[in-house]
Design a protein that fits this description.
By secondary structure, this protein is an alpha/beta fold. The protein has a single domain, classed as Alpha-Beta Barrel (TIM Barrel). The chain contains twelve helices and 13 strands. Strands 2-3-4-5-6-7-8-9 form an eight-stranded parallel beta sheet. The protein has a three-stranded antiparallel beta sheet with strand order 1-10-13, with helices on one face. Strand 4, helix 3 and strand 5 form a beta-alpha-beta unit. The longest helix is centred in the middle third of the chain and has 15 residues. It is globular, with a radius of gyration of 18 Å. The chain starts with a strand and ends with a strand. The chain binds (4S)-2,6-dioxohexahydropyrimidine-4-carboxylic acid and zinc ion. (4S)-2,6-dioxohexahydropyrimidine-4-carboxylic acid binds next to loops.
Length: about 325
Amino acid sequence: MDITLRSPLDMHLHLREGDMLDLTVPMSAQHFAGAVIMPNLVVPVDSLHHLKNYRQAIESYCHQEDFRPYMTLFFKTYSRQELEECGTHILGIKLYPAGITTQSEAGVSDFSAIEETLVHLQELKIPLLVHGESDGFVLDRERQFLDVYRSLASRFPDLHIVMEHITTADAVALLDEFDNLSATVTLHHLMITLDDVMGDLLRPDLFCKPVAKTPRDRNALRQAVFSGHPKIMFGSDSAPHPRHKKECIGCAAGVFSAPVALPLLAQIFEDAGELDLLQGFVSTIACQRYGITPPDKKVRLTQAPWQVPSYYNDVSPFFAGQMIRWSVQSAP
Ligand code: DOR
Ligand code: ZN
């Protein structure tokens, strides 16, 4: 059996910088028509100048592929003029609470000091993408942050707020409370729970932020996604780290899922008997929520089993060494 996806999108992707782009960009560019590029580089992407250089670097690794990098700026206080200048160069602004995850030290530490920038974003119709975790107990962080989402969504009703990589039943439920909230869900959070990360031997390759939660939470995500929830889009949060940063004391957070994202999505949607809903999850819903028109690109998936390599260069991918029933084949 084959399926053809129209303009699949990855609405949350870490490509990194420098040599790493040689691995990450062609991989996503072959499988996707576009992706939302995260700005948490060593020096955060927080100016138009930096963003243009970064986009150019990404494009130089796309080769012949039709792939649109939807760029984001790292949240800081921006003047209205700075944001106006960004115009069509950005899809949105990514807000990290300070220090909450990889390279987020320059993030927001005082939420009362960001009002003016939020007013500009709302007026200029620039979406706000949020890493929604508090600094509380690790399993409660997303739940504790929901009040911040509530406050933002009610005070800025015309601001499109994207709750990135939600992992809990409570976050899914919050989507129903406010029209201006959307969410992304990753592949790995649809598949694993905390037990997979640390219930047996500790698995650095599955350690990420937010950490995978309980079976009940995973079920809530699956139920929402496998019923075509109209506000939930696919964002892989694929976040490669080299082996020496994962297999060590002080393991970095991030699951490298880009090489397996579409094939495994096909597999889990098929297993759920909902293959027809994959198109919506990987493209249509994102186009509607963001009002974007990605490059017209068809990506064909065929039922040709393959074994996921243990490493791509020195990065261990999600599902390493395991078999996947579906493969990607670019179609004309
Ligand atoms: O696990 C994660 N890794 N979560 C994030 O929010 C950031 C990402 C990264 O950049 O490595
Ligand atoms: Zn991320």
